[in-house]
Amino acid sequence: MEYLAALHPATLYALVVVLGLLVGSFLNVVILRFPAALLHDWKCQCRELLGLEGDEAPHETPAGIASGRSRCPSCSHPIAWYDNIPVASWLILRGRCRKCGTAISMRYPVVELLTAILSVLVIWQLGPTTAGLAGLVFTWTLIAAAGIDLDHKLLPDQLTLPLLWLGLTLNVFGVFTDLESAVVGAVAGYLVLWLVFHLFRLVTGKEGMGYGDFKLLAAIGAWFGWQVLPTVILLASGVGAVLGLGLIALRKMGREVPIAFGPFLAAAGWLVLVGGDAIVDFWLLF
Questions:
Q1: Can you tell me whether residue 187 is helix, strand or coil?
Q2: Closest listed residue to residue 221, CA positions, set 184, 179, 180
Q3: pLDDT of 56 strictly over 60
Q4: Is this structure's pTM higher than 0.85?
């Protein structure tokens, strides 16, 4: 930590940019492969519980997050290391597979750039401190969770629960708030959306969100205390409502199509991380 603090700011931010790009490349792999691995695992567990055997068993095991080479989703050609350099390779190849020429989604460089930019902002705001390094982990986890939720309307426990416990652990030492506020924040964060979920289902007969949203808000409460929860909920709900109404008005989405709430919670939680009291005070003015 002292070594990082002694670095020239330009050197420090350059290192954070490189680290952010590399982590962003890894997060693309997590967003793509982790849901497939979960689905395969769930199918295997269901077949085991039901005692099903035979040719219908799922033989194909998806590539693990840290194992298996990246391949073109179209032609399955293995991607060489020089074609897998964050952002640069996508630009050099003009967004196309070297082998088959199929377009590669722009989301890959966007996630990498977003991770790098947000990482720099975290260190700029919090510095090369314990809070800053913890903030990087918080940011990267939120990006992975938001990406998976956008694709699959799923917030895996494997991301939300460790984030919650890490927040509580950090606040044993008062990194972001006192432990009492963190514990109350975790409990209140879960219960608030749990109550909204059941009230909405009671009134409409439909489920308005998933349990992963409860756990993500609980994790945010564990990191920053119960005091930030109204701000996070207002930010996430407000932006989500505006975006949803905008898409409906532009006829890009039907009224019955669900919108993932996790990315909005993640964005609001990240703003609280870097904005802190300023974000809370701004919303209290209104």
A1: helix
A2: 184
A3: no
A4: yes
